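From the methods appendix. Each design record in this collection lists the tokenized structure first, followed by the designed amino acid sequence. Records were kept in a plain field format so they could be parsed without special tools. The example shown here is representative of the layout used throughout.

RECORD:
FOLD TOKENS (95 positions):
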């Protein structure tokens, strides 16, 4: 994220952003296999696990969104200031 480097699917899988990478022609088969794997588990256990994951993200999500707004506001202010400085420098050269 901090480097803004683009990564491919293999790298995303390697660092844990993805749990599986399949060729496009194998996507339907892999999807069906995952569905069958999930359906073979206890519906109660899967449902509760989903609730725990969702609940754990809520407070962090709110904080993350607040932080993102703050960063965006800072970036906008910095861009405006940079633009003002450039306009002043251009005016000084022209005048």
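DESIGN:
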């Amino acid at each position: 994220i901090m480097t803004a480097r683009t990564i491919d699917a293999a790298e995303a899988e390697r660092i844990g952003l993805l749990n599986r990478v399949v060729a496009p022609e194998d996507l339907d088969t892999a999807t069906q296999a995952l569905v069958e794997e999930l359906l073979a588990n206890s519906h109660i256990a899967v449902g509760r696990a989903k609730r725990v994951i969702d609940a754990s993200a809520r407070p962090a999500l709110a904080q993350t969104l607040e932080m993102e707004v703050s960063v965006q506001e800072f970036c906008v202010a910095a861009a405006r200031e940079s633009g003002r400085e450039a306009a002043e420098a251009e005016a000084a050269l022209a005048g």
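APPENDIX NOTE: The radius of gyration is 24 Å.
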